[in-house]
Amino acid sequence: MEELESSNVGDIKTYSQKASTIRKNGYIVIKSRPCKVVEVSTSETNEHGHANCHFVAIDIFTSEKHEDTVPTSHICDVRHVPRVNQTHYPLLDISEDGFVSVLTENGTTKDDLKLPTEEPLLTQVTFLLKAGFEEEKDIVIFVMSVMGEERIFALEEVGTKGALSA
Fold this sequence. Notes:
Blueprint: E1 6-9, E2 12-18, E3 27-30, E4 33-42, E5 52-59, E6 65-71, E7 75-79, E8 85-94, E9 99-103, E10 109-114, H1 121-131, E11 137-146, E12 149-160
Antiparallel strand pairs: 1-2, 2-7, 3-4, 4-5, 5-6, 8-9, 8-11, 9-10, 11-12
Pfam families: eIF-5a, IF5A-like_N
Protein name: Eukaryotic translation initiation factor 5A
InterPro entries: IF5A-like, IF5A-like_N, IF5A_C, NA-bd_OB-fold, Rib_uL2_dom2, Translation_prot_SH3-like_sf
């Protein structure tokens, strides 16, 4: 893997890499969105001596499909996987408009995370919130952040109320 140049995109580090070295299950930035590559195909060399890479990738937050075709020698922004921040917070409360209140590591509350509304997380959220939160169970919210965007990607019941602070 040839690392050519470092740059910042949002709150993550990216590095530039030749398109021909990017593989399936890798990460790439397409249309300023962090994506996981699900398909890569390379065209035959054309009459001008150039081949192209066609990428099909899925936005890691919205699950939208993005495609891009670039020359194999083109330099692409690629995201380091460890730069995707994943953290978890104890759930404190849920507002009527779907925002959650969570407790951060430094003891403050964070109130700007919205509950997911897309499947399959919607089913998990509905079940946990009815069976867990309302029955005084501790629930942990797992959050992924990259490029200045945060999303809840999982929830987990961890015990009865107060077990997290004990």
